[in-house]
Design brief:
mainly alpha
């Protein structure tokens, strides 16, 4: 008897949805949820819909353009690398040579 096996050819590829890659899908989802909560809060507070709708639509448009721009500019892991690179120090300063004079060659195991 022969069995039919389906090969998954998408292994180790990032998740992509309509051009958004990896974590940018989550950024967009969180942004949309925050916009929904903001809309609800403004509506409950009694603000006019003629004021709320343009604000929410404008912020939603800005959110979409920003997330898509970041996704295309930095790719799957580029934004995290960008933030990590900004946290590196410009230089290291040592006030004494004690750190280097007390270094010993470590041996692995008990030989």
């Amino acid at each position: 008897m022969s069995s039919v096996y389906h090969i998954n050819k998408g292994i180790n590829k990032p998740i992509e949805f309509k051009g958004l890659k990896a974590q940018y899908i989550a950024y967009l989802a969180v942004g949309l949820i925050l916009l929904l909560i903001g809309f609800a809060a403004l509506y409950i507070s009694g603000l006019s819909l003629f004021i709320i709708l343009p604000v929410i639509i404008g912020l939603g448009t800005a959110l979409f353009f920003t997330v898509f721009r970041l996704s295309h500019r930095y790719g799957e892991h580029g934004l995290m690398k960008y933030f990590a690179k900004n946290q590196l120090p410009d230089c290291l300063t040592f006030r004494s040579r004690k750190l280097f004079t007390h270094l010993k060659k470590q041996t692995h195991g008990s030989r």
